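pinned: reference chain
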Amino acid sequence: MSVAQLHPGGRVRDAVPSARAAMRAAAAVPVAGLDVDELTDALVGAAALEGQAAALRLSLLAEADARKVAQSLGVTGTDAWAARLTGANRAETANLVRWRGGWRRPTTRPGTRSPPVRSTRTRSR
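pinned: its structure tokens
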């Protein structure tokens, strides 16, 4: 049995600082020297990273809310706890907690399907 199996959260604990270090390294590159392809790829990649970071944050908020972490620490709610930790706006954090929490509940009646999601984003080179 590996340490990762004993402490599954350790992967996130290690991965987030590594990702932040990689972002600092990328931000240190002078963007004025990038050619058009590099600039395009970097912009698309940065947008994808932003989306991945937001998805991780939402998952962590939902898990903390489901476990009632804030209440166990004597804080009024997950929104207040997370806003204090991150320096984010409490109202915005409350909206994220409510929005992400809704994903745990079914959004369609049994026997019905949600409409397909279609991406209209295109990338030109």
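why pinned: The radius of gyration is 19 Å. Residues 68 and 78 are 7 Å apart (CA to CA).
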